[in-house]
Amino acid sequence: MVGLFAILALLLALTGIYGVMSYAASSPREIAIRVALGAKPVDTMLLLLSHGARLTMAGLVVGGVAAAGLTRVLVGILYQLSPTDPMTFTAVAAMLGVVAMAAYFVPAMKVLGIDPMEVLRHDWPVVHTNGKGSLPI
Hints:
mainly alpha, 5 helices, two-stranded antiparallel sheet
């Protein structure tokens, strides 16, 4: 039963990380401006993935330090597992890292497939003027 809750907690963490990272990666306007100004899609993808890798590594380091610090508190509820089991730490960090990088890769591929002029044309903030239509700012 405890294993089921652990798997459920891991799935919840993976889902949350995917949602946050994919939201951070999906900025179609910024990517469209870069591509419209002449950036190659490969360079833009590498820029996005390097940003995602930096965020992922920072999260893994902070999370690893926090997890290592909290193992002393959780020692009483661990069953047949040492508090600093390197296999568990490595497996969880690898799963979280893969999901975080996939969350950056998938929206970036979607955005790079869109025509930059279409994004720039339809992404303006709109101001409503007395019900007579709308004007871009």
